[in-house]
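pinging the channel bc i need a second pair of eyes. not urgent but kinda urgent?? the chain im working w is below, pasted from the shared doc
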Amino acid sequence: MLARRKMRSRELARRIGITEQNLSLLKSGKVKGVRFETLAAICRELDCQPGDLLEYLPGGEASGSGQSSPSAQ
């Protein structure tokens, strides 16, 4: 999604008010959750919908339940 918008991770992180490292963790799916405020800010800056960024993966890693994780687009 960043490439489509011709934006670098550093710029997006600055615009939404999180660190580049936290944005990297979100992009890689290595987080257990994301604040709605952060998701809304990302969608605002990238002019997209949450469904453009997230995908449902059945059978979560540790808990055995389904979970949503950022898609690698």
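so Helices lie at 9-16, 20-28, 36-46, 50-53. and Residues 9 and 20 are 7 Å apart (CA to CA). — does that match what u expected or am i reading it wrong
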